């Protein structure tokens, strides 16, 4: 729930590998020695310490897999513990499909706060079936209530989602992984937009999506983890299948947000396989990274994202 996620101090946007701060190659020897063999009396060569790259998308396993997939894949990860963001193949915004439903819910919850009220029983029923069962009729009803494209666009602008493009058809809204990470922060991390109670409500729905929709982010993650997800899928007439996944994972010291968008998939299953394998490989990378000594995982400043 909300309290299980810590707020990182500094968020550094990045593309590609981080820059590791390496220790000095020499350190003072405990006992002076004239037989060090390197011509530097009193010093010994320190063991080489390799600080791992914290960018999951540049890992050999994930980068190799991504290179093997057809269509266009773009992705983003936010490491809650370090406050770092990593982007893979950032480009133009892609169609959200049903992934936008967590955006609609966040907007509705914010509007109830402005109006100093809670959700009505009808609204509660609508948002529950919209997120957990991905019901389109419920999403359409709420989209109309929220003043359609102008209303959702205003909410997204307030959050700082400047790469999301509205549409009069809610499922045709376009977005980027970077903007979805911004949305997930509003849903999960302490902030001034949503109250803890409303965050907890939305997280509960994301953690209880139907089993058939638990592909992508949750793939390969232990059942003991806290996992929230909302996926989207759409057969685009001109470009092929669009398959998306966005969500969060928390287990012990491993805590991250992930969004993967795929465009031009030859089939629905192909796209689902792609986002699920990425989800599994990201878990393997992040969970392994969390077990390393803190001295090997500190600080890596990435290049600034465009």
| Relevant CATH superfamily | DD-peptidase/beta-lactamase superfamily
| β-strand amount | 15-25%
Label the structural class: alpha+beta
Q: Uncertain runs with pLDDT below 50, 5 residues or more?
A: 6-43, 293-306
Number of domains: 1
Encode the helix/strand succession as letters: EEEHEEEHHHHEHHEEEHE
Mean pLDDT: 83
Helix fraction bin: 25-40%
Terminal-residue CA separation: 32 Å
By CATH, the architecture is named 3-Layer(aba) Sandwich
Radius of gyration: 22 Å
Provide the CATH topology: Beta-lactamase
Q: What does the largest sheet look like?
A: 5 strands, antiparallel
Counted by DSSP, the helix tally is: 8
The level 1 CATH classification is Alpha Beta
Q: Got a strand count?
A: 11
In spatial order, strands of the major sheet run 5-4-10-9-8
Write a short abstract of this structure:
33% of the residues lie in helices and 20% in strands.
Topology at a glance:
Blueprint: E1 19-20, E2 26-28, E3 43-45, H1 60-68, E4 72-79, E5 84-88, E6 94-95, H2 101-114, H3 121-132, H4 136-145, H5 148-159, E7 174-175, H6 177-188, H7 196-206, E8 226-236, E9 240-251, E10 254-265, H8 268-289, E11 300-301
Helix pairs in contact: 1-8, 2-7, 3-4
């Amino acid at each position: 729930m909300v309290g299980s996620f810590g707020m990182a101090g500094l968020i550094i946007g990045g593309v590609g590998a981080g820059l590791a701060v390496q220790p000095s190659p020499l350190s003072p020897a405990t006992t002076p020695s004239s037989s060090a063999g390197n011509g530097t009396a009193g010093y010994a060569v320190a063991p080489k310490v390799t600080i791992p790259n914290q960018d999951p998308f540049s890992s050999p396993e994930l980068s190799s897999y991504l290179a093997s997939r057809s269509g266009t894949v773009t992705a983003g990860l936010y490491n809650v513990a370090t406050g770092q963001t990593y982007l893979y193949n950032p480009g133009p915004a892609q169609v959200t499909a049903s992934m936008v439903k967590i955006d609609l819910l966040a907007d509705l919850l914010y509007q109830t706060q402005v109006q100093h009220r809670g959700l009505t029983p009808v609204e509660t029923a609508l948002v529950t079936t919209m997120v957990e069962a991905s019901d389109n009729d419920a999403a359409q009803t709420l989209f109309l209530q929220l003043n359609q494209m102008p209303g959702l666009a205003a909410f997204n602008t307030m959050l700082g989602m400047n790469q999301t493009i509205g549409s009069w058809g809610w499922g045709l809204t376009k977005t980027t992984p970077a903007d979805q990470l911004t949305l997930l922060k509003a849903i999960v991390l302490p902030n001034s937009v949503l109250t803890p109670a409303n965050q907890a409500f939305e997280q509960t729905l994301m953690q209880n999506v139907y089993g058939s929709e638990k592909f992508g982010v949750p793939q390969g993650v232990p059942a003991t983890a806290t996992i929230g997800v909302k996926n989207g899928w759409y057969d685009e007439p001109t470009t092929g299948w669009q398959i998306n996944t966005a969500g969060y994972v928390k287990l012990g010291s491993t805590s991250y947000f992930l969004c993967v968008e795929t465009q031009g998939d030859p089939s629905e299953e192909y796209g689902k396989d792609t986002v699920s394998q990425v989800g599994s490989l990201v878990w393997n990378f992040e969970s392994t990274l969390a077990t390393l000594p803190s001295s090997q995982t500190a600080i890596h400043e990435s290049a600034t994202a465009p």
